[in-house]
Amino acid sequence: MTSYSQAPGPIGVFDSGYGGLTILHGIRQLLPEYDYLYLGDNARAPYGSRSFDVVYQFTRQAVMKLFESGCQLVILGCNTASAKALRSIQQNDLPKLDPNRRVLGVIRPTAEIIGKLTHSQHVGLLATEGTVKSHSYNMEIQKLWPDVKVTGVACPLWVPIIENNEADSPGADYFVKKRIDHIMRLDPEIDTVILGCTHYPILMSKILKHVPRGIKIVPQGEYVAESLQDYLHRHPDMERRCTKHGTVKYLTTENPEKFKESARIFLNDEISVEHVDLE
Ligand code: DGL
Fold this sequence. Notes:
2 domains; four-stranded parallel beta sheet; binds D-glutamic acid
């Protein structure tokens, strides 16, 4: 077993890149008192179309880095990592690395709420290719809400559109409309659509413009935050191991200046960023 410090530390939030900032934002809105350490593997993003094994290895390295940096609790704020790596990390790695630490994902919190939001029992999922193909949402939702039918559509161009700061362009309208029309053609009874990718809330105004009237759009930040709050309430031992000074620090595997610049798409704050290597 690795000998990590047992001292309390910040809550770790991991993403392949910038998208997890939307999750961190949701968490900080509800739980501003905790300290957070955000890690973006920007040098190797996007993860969306990478294989299971690669996403698992990269995510495992990131979790170990956050553990080394003192995090007792890590949230995989990335759907692709939650879909492809979370279970293996929880079952195979945590017992060896440190059985007292925890790693949680973003799919389960959304699955828990979805049956309460849909009336037609037909739910759409817009996500990366990796998340859609993993069927993780379908499986989690099936366990909790067996009557809910989930139809997934991958939107491979949405992440690059956002990362290239084109979310407000007419080109973005074209690609958003195309995927929404596609999912509604596949199942016209859909009344609720999960944005199963951290980046997609940035396209919210375009999504609302092109989605048929009356359809609910479900971004994840709020539900992940509520689920984390509930988790900390149910696990006071872990809650005591999370420090509370209201600070946020950022780590990136890319150039910190580049991270600061691009993070402006997701945040309004001036932030301090450090470079880390993962291996
Ligand atoms: N963060 C990823 C997710 O939520 C999207 C970006 C990527 O493909 O790495 O699936």
